# Entry
Amino acid sequence: MKANYHTHTARCGHAEGTDEEYVLAALSQGFDELGFSDHMPWPYASGYAHPHVRMHVSQMEEYLKSIRALQAQYKDRIRIRVGFECEYFEDYIGWLEDVAHEHALDYLILGNHYEHSDETGMYFGSARTPGELRRYVESTVRGIETGLFAYLAHPDLFMRSYPRFDENCRAAARDLCQACKEKAMPMEYNVHDRFISYFTHRKSYPHPEFFEIVRQEGVQVIIGLDAHEPRELSVPDQWNLATQELFSFGALHIDHIGMRGFAGKKA
# Structure
């Protein structure tokens, strides 16, 4: 089975292409399943909205309607799933669970970019000190412990800015692995940063030393394209490279996830 569950849309303000173009790109490469998981629009109490990070909460209904129309249109050619990529924002977790059930989302993924809120919190991709790294780990572990999420996206996000992979990073990797194992939660082998490195010149994730610890700890991994443009689905280079790099993971490299299935009222 060939599946990608980390797909964005232009609504987030830093992606491009129509929703259908992503579907057609996935079809061109023989994907069996495509999951849309655009950035969750949070209902900030202050009314704050960040136009370059996520859609506004008022766009949620249209997003879901669009993806479900594509589900019906392409049902005989590809399975399309719909969810969101979310941070662990403690103040909004109850709201998130309500929304997931109200809209019968297929799944949620934990992409923990910010601490507390992107309105005031630090961006974890800018972590440069052991203290900032610990804040990322502690917040992410709390998100894992909610049991709401299908997998942990770009778990090594902190390597966007952290100076070198040191003992603090090794400890962080082990703590994240332990939390994921306790919830039987896979980690994502995210190749988006590598795809765009030709213009960012950034070497961050997937980090080989981080994922060697993941392999040793026995945590399942799944490839995530984290597509922000249809070309990330239609150009096979990064997918093929990631498949080769995960060869040593054996059965720990999984090719699909079970759907959380939030249909009906919250339990």
User: Anything to note?
Assistant: DSSP finds ten helices and six strands in the chain. The first helix runs from residue 19 to 28.
